[in-house]
Amino acid sequence: MYRLVRGLLFLLPAETAHRLTFAALRVALAPAPLRALVRRLAAPRDPALRVDALGLSFPTPVGLAAGFDKDAAGFRQLGALGFGFVEIGTVTPRPQPGNPKPRLFRLKKDRALVNRLGFNNRGMEAAAKRLAKTHAGVVVGANVGRNKTTPEDGAIDDYVAAATALAPAADYLVVNVSSPNTPGLRDLQAVERLRPLLEAVRGAVGAKPLLLKIAPDLADEDVDAVADLALDLRLDGIIATNTTISRENLASAPARIEAIGPGGVSGNPLAERSLHILRRLRARVGDRLVLVAAGGIEDATGAWARIEAGATLVQLYTGFVYGGPAAPARIARGLAAEARNRGYARVQDAVGRSTTLQ
After folding, report:
1. How does pLDDT run along the chain (358 residues), one tens digit per residue?
2. What is the pTM of this model?
3. In b/e form, how buried is each residue of 208-247, taking b as 16+ CB within 10 angstroms?
């Protein structure tokens, strides 16, 4: 059924399709009784899927990555579909429109997306107000970034402001220094610049679980340095990874790729590099940090590979776009079945059981 709907949606520009489908979901599942009914029918309730991490209890390890619900407008509805957690954002202190349109594109042959959205969002105050309402059983993370117009020497203030505004209502926070679509943002991943930023955010939010989201384009030695810094600052986890600026090994026509222009690639082309970085992080930090896998996960097989490589939690984005509303529950059930087939009582018991560095 979804293949037919997807075919029709894919006739529309990517951002238009996203806006329409997300609006329809928010309206359709706005009534709490209907959300509860959909949750009972769609969301898996298998004890093998429960994950205890970050001081929180996740009903499943399958979550939605930041970028889909930028303004905390529909996290309850998304949770009803079977996501174990929803990460909202990226949220900046001040509202901003993002980059000029068009800015979101499909690479259908690659089961990928290219985006240069540029942190389009309504700002921290609007997101905090929505997030303060009941989560209705959904674990919600808040991903924060800096405004495009903020000078580099004001970046720390932006992150502290957004994190402080969202911390009271969010279950965990994520510092995003890895989007390729805000000029100069990725420069903040350099350890000498990252340390004071993370120290300031940690000081502002106290014991609230704090994670860092990194790029897949970091050199291996930089991944190691960031991991060491995260341990030194006692962060709670790392999300690996954001989108890539690489255009290697794409099946789509070169002319199509050139016509799209700059932006971050997400989806299947990202899977191999993201898995490599995850394995490297696990080898470096062991179980001292919670590792969250993102990038190219679209089925239970891919999600299981991340679990075995060291991920406690996994996130979908492009896999949700291509796989449809049943994807989070389908993947979660597949993980539970795989765990039982391998003799594990819970999926979480398999975390890091295969950590060969490749």
Report:
1. 788 889 999 999 999 999 999 999 999 999 999 999 999 999 999 999 999 999 999 999 999 999 999 999 999 999 999 999 999 999 999 999 999 999 999 999 999 999 999 999 999 999 999 999 877 779 999 999 999 999 989 999 999 999 999 999 999 999 999 999 898 889 888 889 999 999 999 999 999 999 999 999 999 999 999 999 999 999 999 999 999 999 999 999 999 999 999 999 999 999 999 999 999 999 999 999 999 999 999 999 999 999 999 999 999 999 999 999 999 999 999 999 999 999 999 999 999 998 555 5
2. 0.96
3. bbbbbbbbbbbeeeebbbbbebbeeeebbbbbbbbbbeeb
Q: Which residues are catalytic?
A: 179
Report the alpha-carbon distance of residue 265 to residue 263 in Å, rounded.
7
Backbone CA torsion sign across 230, 127, 116, 16: positive
Q: Which two tokens stand for residue 95?
A: 């509202």
